[in-house]
Amino acid sequence: MAFWLMKSEPGAWSWDDQLKAGAAEWDGVRNYQASNNMKAMKLGDRAFFYHSVNEKRVVGIVEVVKEYYPDPSDPSGRFGMVDVAAVAPFAEPVTLARIKAEPRLAEIALVRQSRLSVLPLRAAEWKLICQMGGTEA
What we know:
With 137 residues, the chain is of the alpha+beta class. It has a single domain (3-132), classed as ph1033 like domains (ph1033 like fold), CATH 3.10.590.10. It has five helices and six strands. A hairpin with a 5-residue loop joins β3 and β4 (57-70).
């Protein structure tokens, strides 16, 4: 299993929206690196659901339930999407400030490539952020 972090603007698609939907498409990604990260996702991979913009915090965990396929909202046909299902909320959201303050997370892509919307995580990073949020890995 691989681990990821997926950013969403809560005004466009929030954790509450994801919970209500259960499983839903993760569409609209128009960055090649983020798209390539989604291409690498496999069924059962887990991702943190991250509220971007004003909140900047990890709020839940989703699981990949459908691998990469064409995004019909992309007229160019270059980009795709995956489907994810809500797994669990974080007991305590983990803010970007807390992540940046943790020396063991200094190399995390969220800090190094702050504009990337879909990024990989190492298993140790995943486990540590879960612990910080009071959530089972």
